[in-house]
Amino acid sequence: MSDFSALHVAMSGLKAAQLKMDTASNNIANANTVGYTRQRVDLATRYPNFDPAGQVGAGVDVADIARIRDTFLDGRVRSASAALAETDVRADFLSRAELITGEPDIGVTASLDRLWATFENLALDPTDLTSRQAVLDELGTFSTLVNQLASGLEGLREGAVESAQSTISTVNGTLAEIARLNVVILDASAEPGTPNDLMDQRDRLIDEVSELIGANAITDEDGAVRISLNGLSLVTGSDHRALAIDPDTGIVTHPTGVAVSPGGELGGYLAVYHDDIPQIQSGLDTFASETADAINTIHQAGYHANGAGGAMLSYDPLDPARSLSVAIADVDEIATAAAPGPPFAPFDATVPANLADLRNDRVISGGTASVGESYRSFIATLGQQTASALSSAVSQQGLVDAADRSRQSSHGVSVDEEMVHLMEAQRMYEAAARVITSVDQALDTLINRMGMVGR
Asked: Considering the domain boundaries, does residue 10 fall inside one?
């Protein structure tokens, strides 16, 4: 009977070796497959047979084909990826805002230099119509550039909320797919073995959701995954809850009506919409209104042939940069003299000279900066924000790479290691086959050669 038992034992070894070779082969084939988790054959000793001489081993069983997955490393990668996605979005939008300024060659700074030059030329001859027209033209150019910059910033802000809407649509679709996979995986788990490929697919989707909104994932004892954001459930078993965004306010809400603060890519878009661009717009509005006020104050203190000078630039106090425009339409309305007369002094150039002095006079920000210094400070602040965001993105990329390397060292496939496993399985298979051959030879002797002595 032991010979026949040995056949069964060897057969169990053959099957185990075959599965080990198949699994190693599958690992090697998927070495470069994104999101694939290496698998391992777990073996367990069979319950022994009892013999008067003692317990006799009954062979080996394949307990499971397990995924080598570490939830802690998953959490590190997902957290770092969400932070990187948010930083990348902010760095991208700030870089685009910096490009919109057109500095230093074709932006507001160059227009201001030309504007001060036209005032200086007018101060040389206040009666020169060409110089007067040049002042009006450059005022128009200056206000147009400020308008375009303000409109460009508002376009970026609107683009951020549109991108946020698109991201939420993607997230909601992914949440629905994770909920579907929860059901499929639970159903498949009722059969022997673990649905490794389905679980890999679900983990890839969880990685994606984490990167998009910074959501948290927890695996229940039954194998289903729960996804939550700010403590509010998004996926529970087969149920999923869709996020929504108000395009007018940029507020993201949970189906319960509670506002949430996502991270990841969506968090980056919301930070651009609520914080980054509004801060830049506020700085530009302050510059536009203070510059217009400084020019108007000097011009309104002067006189032209028909009376007192009025405002040269006008704006809506609620939206200064986008509404900035030239307030005078005729060159005759440009005030040049310091006194009304009579008689009016056509060659009195006090006003254009004072306007030209705005190049250096510190009349902005409570007398702490000139017009040019105020705008350069605005540009410098934007540049610092952009540089900081880009630097943060580079640093965060390093953290993501380090976390991903750690995860890959645990989850990923090492071809060299798998070749070793393949050779081990090959030797195991050969040894089991040799056992079967030996038993076959013994049985052949027992069946075909016993009783042949003397014949």
From this structure: yes
What pLDDT, in 10s, does the model give residues 89-117?
A: 999 999 999 999 988 878 899 999 999 99
Residue 205: name the closest of 237, 176, 169, 167 by CA.
Answer: 176
Query: In which element (H, E) is residue 95 found?
Result: helix 71-100
Q: Do the domain assignments include residue 404?
A: no
Q: Of 156, 385, 171, 383, nearest to 272 (Cα)?
A: 156
Q: Over the stretch 409-443, which tens digit does the pLDDT of each residue have?
A: 888 899 999 999 999 999 999 998 998 888 888 88
Of the candidates 350, 313, 325, the one whose C-alpha atom is nearest the C-alpha of residue 335 is 350
Enclosing domain of residue 116: 76-399
Is 304:349 a contact under the CB 8 Å cutoff? no
Distance (Å) of CA 71 to CA 49, 222, 262? 39, 16, 22
Question: What are all long-range contacts of 367-376, with beta carbons under 8 Å and residues at least 24 apart?
Answer: 371/112, 371/290, 371/291, 371/294, 372/109, 372/112, 372/113, 374/287, 374/290, 374/291, 375/108, 375/109, 375/112, 375/287, 375/291, 376/109
Judge whether 110 lies within some domain: yes
Bridge pairing between strands 60-67 and 39-45: antiparallel
Phi–psi pair at 202, nearest 5 degrees: -65, -40
Please say whether the dihedral angle defined by the alpha carbons of residues 422, 22, 186 and 12, taken in this order, is positive or negative: negative
pTM score above 0.90 = no
Helix (H, G, I), strand (E, B) or coil at 336: coil
Contact 168, 39 (CB under 8 A): no
Domain-located, residue 411: no
Phi, psi of 338 (to 5 degrees): -85, -20
Rounded to 10°, the helix 196-213/264-271 angle is 10
